[in-house]
Specification:
Order of helices and strands of chain A: HHEEHHEHHEHEEHHHEHH
Strand order of the largest sheet of chain B: 1-4-5-6-7-8-9-10
CATH topology of chain B: 2-enoyl-CoA Hydratase, Chain A, domain 1
Largest sheet of chain A: 7 strands, mixed
Number of strands of chain A: 7
Strand content of chain B: 15-25%
Number of strands of chain B: 10
Number of helices of chain A: 12
Helix content of chain A: 40-55%
Oligomer: heterodimer
Largest interface: A-B, 50 and 54 residues
Structural class of chain A: alpha/beta
Radius of gyration of chain B: 18 Å
CATH architecture of chain B: Alpha-Beta Complex
Number of helices of chain B: 9
CATH superfamily of chain B: 2-enoyl-CoA Hydratase, Chain A, domain 1
CATH class of chain B: Alpha Beta
Chain lengths: 272, 291
């Protein structure tokens, strides 16, 4: 009996952490971009099929340098959430991201990716247009990109849909963010054949970014003052800005061949 | 330590060509008695079904093939040399859903005779030197755990070191949920392996079998020069059932089948199992600039 109570308590705490990461008032990509960059000019479309609003991107100035900033945007109210498809990209989003990363490489601009997605979109159109192909291509692009890259996991890093924008030289994460192989609901459906057991899945999967840090997908956690980033957006955004600039400064001094080789061997070893 | 030190290989005796570390490999399908085609239910003598490469001679259904059997089907006779890559026991989350995860792995090892969901081999394929990396769906649904990812990445590195074309047979339900985020990281690890093969300008061909989903499709399965799908194979990112539940849309006929993906420009060819060796061999010969 006591075991059951303990288990239930553990599951409740684990899922509360997931809910905190999903808090609707946490800083979103467009909000961070507006606050930390100047002159950000949104570029749209993948030049192949359409424009995916779950991924936004374009060049900007940040801390005295030009940067390509790409973000997954979840939206902030019912209308913008629907517009941005709750941050769940279609293949066009990943193809747009790859287009912008190639452009950054051409102009020797570093890339900043703001990761915030529960998962890549699961739908008929996404499959018809090659969701898996688009993600696989983004992974290869990030592994070989000949310009420095920094990714920040803002709130939710879910599945390959997040990883596609997170194979950077430096990966930072807000302390209360989660980074998972799939949303706890999906994990529960696969593991227990019951999406309702999401709390149990959350407890088993250790979705906190400290786990991602331990296995080598995240380098640095950005602290959030209690109760979390939703209550201290300006402070947290300033911390993001400081950390990103510090890493971009460090990366600027590393010869590009060395940087790409280090990135490659780092992801070759990721996951233990 | 040099990675090659951790890899040992052995030449097989002709009578027992596919020898892996530990217990002897058992074929996935029974070789005695009879087996029924999963689609048309027609019964075959097991030996005949295996001789037909687990393809139903009545309805053409392509049945599941284990990794060891795959290597045997693709490699030229008596040329396959399986690589005994030991990846140890991995349990990054201490996962337990009633059965501790290491116990599930141990059972899968016992049942399939494989060490992990990937089995790799050096071989000659239609006369070409190749590195074969074959997934086994019977090993925890061919899921991509950190052990499987490590085996694939090493196969990439050995292909580069020995200047061999890489041929991967992919069949998987996707990530291995029991390893959580460490499983997700395998998409990065395997992609890093593929990147080495690309840089070395070696041909890389993938064969997608039924089923192939999730992080496997969204990484090394489609990062190849040529993507071949087996007839009727279901291939995609999210499974059809998940999509139906999430969107309440009615799935189109033949959704996510090999033929559907061919029509949508996602794969290069749909090739029957009996023609795979020739088709892949021809491609590699051409890419290698040989007559």
């Amino acid at each position: 009996m006591s075991t059951t109570i303990e288990t239930t308590e553990r599951e409740r705490i684990a899922f509360a952490a997931v809910e905190l990461a999903r808090h609707p008032e946490r800083p979103r990509a467009l909000q961070v971009i507006a606050a930390i960059t100047s002159g950000w000019t949104e570029l749209r479309g993948d030049r192949l099929f359409g424009d995916d609003r779950a991924v936004v991107g374009g060049p900007a100035r940040l801390g005295g340098r030009s940067v390509m900033v790409i973000g997954q945007e979840k939206g902030t109210d019912p209308m913008t959430r629907a517009l941005h498809n709750f941050g769940m990209p279609h293949p066009e989003g990943y193809r747009k991201a790859v287009r912008l990363m190639r452009q950054a490489e051409k102009f020797s601009m570093p890339v900043l990716c703001l990761v915030d997605t529960p998962a890549a979109h699961a739908g008929i159109g996404a499959e018809e247009r090659g969701q898996a192909w688009a993600i696989a291509d983004a992974l290869l692009c990030m592994l070989g990109l000949r310009t420095p890259t920094v990714s920040v996991v803002l709130s939710e890093g879910g599945s390959g849909g997040a990883l596609a924008l997170a194979l950077a030289d430096r990966v930072l994460a807000l302390e209360n963010a989660v980074y998972t192989v799939a949303p706890p609901e999906t994990c529960a459906a696969i593991l227990y054949r019951d999406a309702g057991q999401r709390a149990r899945a959350a407890a088993a999967l250790r979705p906190g970014v400290d786990t991602a840090n331990r296995i080598g997908l995240v380098d640095e956690l950005i602290p959030e003052p209690p109760p979390g980033a939703h209550a201290h957006a300006p402070l947290v955004i300033a911390a993001i800005r400081g950390a990103v600039i510090r890493h971009l400064d460090e990366l600027r001094d590393i010869p590009i061949d060395e940087l790409v080789a280090e990135r490659r061997s780092r992801y070759r070893a990721a996951g233990g | 330590m040099d990675r090659a030190d951790a890899v040992t290989s052995r030449r097989q005796a002709p009578r027992n060509r596919l020898q892996a570390p530990g217990p002897e490999l058992r074929p996935t399908a029974p070789t005695t008695g009879t087996v029924a085609c999963p689609r048309c239910k027609r019964r075959f003598v097991a030996e005949r079904y295996a001789a037909d490469l687990n393809v139903c001679s009545e309805c053409g259904h392509h049945g599941v093939v284990g990794a060891a059997q795959r290597i045997e089907q693709l490699a030229d006779p008596n040329t396959a040399e399986t690589l005994a890559v030991e990846v140890g026991d991995r349990d990054p989350l201490g996962f337990d859903d009633g059965v501790p995860y290491p116990q599930r792995v141990a059972r899968a090892r016992e049942r399939t005779g494989l060490h992990e969901a990937f089995l790799t081999a050096r071989a000659s394929l239609a006369g070409n030197p190749v590195m074969l990396a074959c997934m086994d769906f019977e090993f925890l649904g061919g899921s991509l755990g950190s052990g499987a990812g490590e085996i694939f990445a090493r196969a990439c590195e050995m292909a580069v070191a020995e200047r061999r074309a890489l041929v991967a047979v992919c069949t998987s339900g996707g990530a291995r949920m029991q390893e959580g985020i460490a499983s997700l990281a395998q998409m990065a690890r395997c992609s890093a392996g593929v990147a080495e093969v690309i840089d070395a300008r070696l041909p890389y061909v993938t064969i997608l079998g039924d089923p192939c989903f999730g992080g496997v499709t969204a990484s090394f399965a489609v990062q190849s020069d040529v993507i071949i799908a087996e007839p009727g194979a279901r291939i995609g990112f999210a499974g059809g059932r998940v999509i139906e539940q999430a969107t309440h849309d009615k799935l189109p006929d033949g959704f996510q089948t090999a033929e559907f993906l061919l029509a949508h420009g996602m794969v290069d060819a749909v090739v029957e199992r009996g023609r795979l060796r020739d088709a892949v061999g021809t491609l590699i010969r051409i890419y290698s600039g040989r007559a």
